[in-house]
Amino acid sequence: MQNLQMIDYWVFLAYFLLVASYGYWVYNRKKKTETTTTDFFLAEGSLTWWAIGASLIASNISAEQFIGMSGNGFFVGIAVAAYEWLAAIALIIVAVFFMPIYLKNHIYTMPQFLKTRYNETVSMIMTVFWLFLYIFVNLTSILFLGALAINNLIGGDHFHIIMVGLAAFALVITIGGMKVIGYTDVLQVLVLIIGGLATTWLALDMVSVKFGMGHNIFSGFNLLMEKADDHFHMILAKPTVDSSQEYINKYLLLPGIAMYAAGQWIVNLNYWGCNQYITQRALGADLNTARTGILFAGFLKLMMPIIVMLPGIAAYVLYQNGALQDQMAPGGKFLADNAYSAILTFLPTGLKGLSMAALTAAIVASLAGKANSISTIFTLDIYRKYIDKEADDRKLVWVGRMAIVASMVLAIALTWNDLLGIGGAGGFTFIQKYTGFISPGVFAIFILGMFWKRTTGAAAVAGVLVGFVLSVFFNEYAPEVMGNHTFLYTAYPDGNGGFEIPFLICMGLAFGFTILVMVVMSLFGPKVNPKAFELDTAMFKVSPGILVMIVTTLLIITAIYVKFW
């Protein structure tokens, strides 16, 4: 990778000073004599709709998207954009149906939801689950992939220094609380979008120039569709016995139409609607502001594949035509996760600095959001409930800040020598697969808890445990049992002498059986559950302005799928 020039470092320094200065200004302008827990963890309703929407995207888009999704764009193509475009639909569902329930019942954390709707046991189990997931999967993978991406851009061997620097930058923002995170995320998103679009623009321009069409991004895009037509199919056909192992590997990642009936909805609805890391941005606002902010995030989601996926397809076309041969890994193989970094090598001086700023913005915003959520769950759902029930707001805020520091230090320790094997798994797939081990059970207890009054606490406990056990079973043990008998239906050769069920299908199977277990157990329980939420149609009515946002988003997604089906 080519080293950055001095002007690139000046561009990056300008970004750093802008975000740090703005964060400090927000902190001083909005701080109170005595910071309360709702102010520190939820911003106490002070976030505007555009700050909520921008913060959702800044927290969501990180190195795993820039590096991992771009790598999947290189390997599979536009089908990976389903994660982004279905997320926009999921955000509509969350805004219209989930948020009224949360806000009407004064829910501030997801464990609190489980305690209010079910019981203390369900809440405690999921509190521990979430803390382990956020620290051992999310925080570590964001830190590892972020440091790796920036190190590749800078050149040399500075991985550990960069990792510590990213963690320190995130700590500075996170210690200020949700207000600072929310408003600095607006700047982070601007840098992310501008830098990301600049990279995509130049990637398309490079393709156009490579094939003698001059500097024209539209010609570049048309050339991508011509030279990599197999990369522009939203739905992958089911493999047959004659399919190559490479195609089967693609299908294992994105299993065609089947994933739309299974894992994709579970992934998105669980992530956007049942996840402290995400919902926390909106839980401190009124319903209309929360809804508008969430729908704004959904609208921004529509452009994310242009930023994080399209450069991967451009890298594929350039590689196939000999333009990226110097990016070969040892052994003469191009690694898909190098696709985004490979494109950055061609950026002119100055834009490399902007791209590094965009990457850093995505990484730091995600680290800050995740650390804040870890702190919120630990402080409000463990420390205040079990360790010091008499703690005042000042002490709780102090504990929250210490939890932020502790979680970041632990993540650095785990990431230092890649103890979890993130690099070998592929970043984006690593997060999706291992998050998917608990997603089916979690989503089942949330969806039934919200909308079916008979769901009992005992069924919820069973749902959490059954969902996890079934996820492990379908991912690790069922493929070998099913592979020799149902190759064309469920399990496929993994290229290593065994079989594998696509993890998105595993999630659907685990979710279906978990729902069945919970329904049967609840039917044997009381007909009237005193902890069930009261629902009425008035809760779900939307204003004309919000309805216009919903219809516009759905029309755009429909047009995309019609074009690339």
Describe the protein in words.
The protein has 565 residues and is mainly α. Helices cover 70% and strands 1% of the residues. β1 and β2 form a beta hairpin. The two termini are 36 Å apart. The mean pLDDT is 84.
Produce a short descriptive summary.
The chain is mainly α. The protein has helices at 6-30, 37-42, 49-60, 63-75, 82-104, 110-117, 120-154, 159-174, 178-210, 217-227, 245-253, 263-273, 276-279, 287-301, 304-308, 310-320, 339-344, 351-387, 393-415, 422-425, 427-435, 439-451, 457-483, 503-523, 544-564, and strands at 492-493, 499-500. Strands 1-2 form a two-stranded antiparallel ribbon.
| Global shape | globular
- Integer average pLDDT: 84
Percent of residues in β-strands: under 5%
Total beta strand runs: 2
Could you give the order of strands across the largest sheet?
1-2
Identify the notable features of this structure and list them briefly.
565 residues, mainly alpha, two-stranded antiparallel sheet, 25 helices, 2 strands, globular
Topology (SSEs and partners):
Elements: H1 6-30, H2 37-42, H3 49-60, H4 63-75, H5 82-104, H6 110-117, H7 120-154, H8 159-174, H9 178-210, H10 217-227, H11 245-253, H12 263-273, H13 276-279, H14 287-301, H15 304-308, H16 310-320, H17 339-344, H18 351-387, H19 393-415, H20 422-425, H21 427-435, H22 439-451, H23 457-483, E1 492-493, E2 499-500, H24 503-523, H25 544-564
Antiparallel strand pairs: 1-2
Helix pairs in contact: 1-9, 1-18, 3-9, 3-14, 3-18, 4-16, 4-21, 5-12, 5-14, 5-25, 6-7, 7-8, 7-18, 7-19, 7-21, 7-23, 8-18, 8-19, 9-10, 9-16, 9-18, 12-22, 12-24, 14-25, 18-19, 22-23, 22-24, 23-24
